[in-house]
Amino acid sequence: MFKSFIAAATIGTALIAAPAIAGSSSAGSHAAQSSKIHYADLNLATPQGQEQLERRIDVAARKVCKLDEHRTGTRLPSRQRKACYVKARKSARSQMASLISDTRRGG
Question: What is the rounded distance in angstroms from the CA atom of residue 36 to the CA atom of residue 4?
Fold first, then answer.
C-alpha cells in the first residue's frame, strides 16, 4: 500500500491534511499548497524511522510555508511564514503520533 500524507498550507494557516481533502480549500484568494510526505519505506516502530519521518515533515513544512525563501531587504522569514511553519509541524506531529500508535498496534 502506498503510504503518505499531505502537507497542506495556505498563507498564514497550515495543516497536515488527509489526501481526501488535499487542495480542496483555500483561504481568501490564496490557493492551498501541499506536499506529500512518503513514509512507506520507514519503520515507524523504531526511533530511527520516527526521526526520519520528523526530518521529512520539517522539510515539507519549510517548503510549503516558504520559510527558507528570503524577501528583498531581509533574511528573516515573515511572521505569517513562521506561523504557517509552526502550525504545519504541530499538525504533522499529531498525525505522526496516530501513525506510530497504529504501527504499535499492528496496523
Answer: 6
Question: How big is the CA angle at 20 (ends 63 and 5), to the nearest 5 degrees?
Answer: 40
For 4-61, write each residue's pLDDT tens digit: 555 444 322 333 333 323 333 333 334 567 778 888 999 998 999 999 999 999 999 9
pTM of the model: 0.66
| b/e 3-19 (16+ beta carbons within 10 angstroms → b) | eebbbbbbbbbbbbbee
Q: Judge whether 96 and 53 are in contact, CB under 8 Å.
A: yes
Helices (H), 1-107: 47-64, 79-104
**Joined grid coordinates for residue 36:** 506529500
Radius of gyration of the chain (CA): 15
pLDDT digit string, tens, across residues 70-84? 777 777 778 888 998
Sketch the domain layout of the chain as residue ranges: 4-104
Interatomic CA distance for residues 19 and 41, integer angstroms: 18
Q: Dig out the grid coordinates for 104 from the structure.
A: 504499535
